[in-house]
Design goal:
Elements lengths: L1 H18 L8 H13 L16 H15 L4 H12 L14 H29 L2
Length: 132
């Protein structure tokens, strides 16, 4: 029984070793770019995982696609534009600042500022009543 357990553990270790992706790059800069891009791009299937952290099939395919595009000489912006054209802005962890996302980016600050102004106005009004 003990030998069976040890065998299963070793089999699991060997299996995870072969499951790792082995990608080769022409330069260290390409590898750094690859790591940066797969951390910035979100997995289309997973809700809150980037391509680097996700193990879904689509993420594996997209990591390979990013690798191929980097090695073929595409710029980071061209790769991001390709992913956005194909999967929409959902793939971006930091959506672009457009009129459609204005409230997403600045709405909380506008609401906070409005709340502070309202709070100060109520305080000033109550202070005026208290002194009379």
């Amino acid at each position: 029984m003990k030998q069976l357990l040890i065998g299963l553990v070793l089999l699991g270790l060997v299996n995870t070793t072969f499951a790792e992706e082995r990608m080769t790059f022409r330069s260290e800069l390409n590898q750094v770019r690859y790591q940066s891009l797969i951390k910035e791009l979100r997995c289309p299937k997973c809700q809150n995982q980037n391509l680097a952290d996700s193990n879904s099939g689509i993420s594996v395919d997209l990591r390979q696609q990013v690798h191929n595009m980097i090695e073929s000489g595409k710029t980071d912006q061209e790769i991001v534009d390709y992913m956005v054209a194909r999967y929409g802005t959902f793939v971006l962890y930091r959506p672009q600042n457009t009129p459609a996302t204005f409230l997403l980016w600045y709405g909380p600050f506008i609401l906070l500022l409005g709340g502070v102004v309202l709070f100060v106005a109520v305080l000033m009004k109550n202070r005026g009543r208290g002194s009379k």
